[in-house]
Amino acid sequence: MLIISLPAFSQRKTGIISPDGRIKFTFALTDSLPQYSVAFKKHTIIRPSALSLSFEKDGDFGKGIKITKVIFRKGTDDYSLVAGKAKKVRDQYNESIIPLQETSGHKRLVNLVVRVFNDGIAFRYEIPRQGSWSSYALTAENTTF
Of 28, 58, 77, 44, whose CA–CA distance to 36 is shortest? Predict the structure, then answer.
């Protein structure tokens, strides 16, 4: 009998592209802070840029984190415009929910929710309810580009 011990695989990079394939959002964990970058038609338009959050009591969130199970989905927003060239808009996107969890300390969890459209990107932070972190005061959002 042969037993092989392999180190646990830890995902360090993920990405998502627009429905038409022209825009790519990439997220990566580095030794310092997590970073994102954006490319359009394979040309970098936002170089690797750091992301982190600062909280009043619990300190910074960004170093010493891991990516847990990433969720991908597609969606469409339909809405009407009051003014403009088109009265009705159909906006398709690809979405990725990137769960980021501290590997030590409070083991806080923050989701980075990314939407990539055919004409741009958007992302936001979500802080899900969690037993070890019942309240917080966000003092700084340290997203750069």
Answer: 28
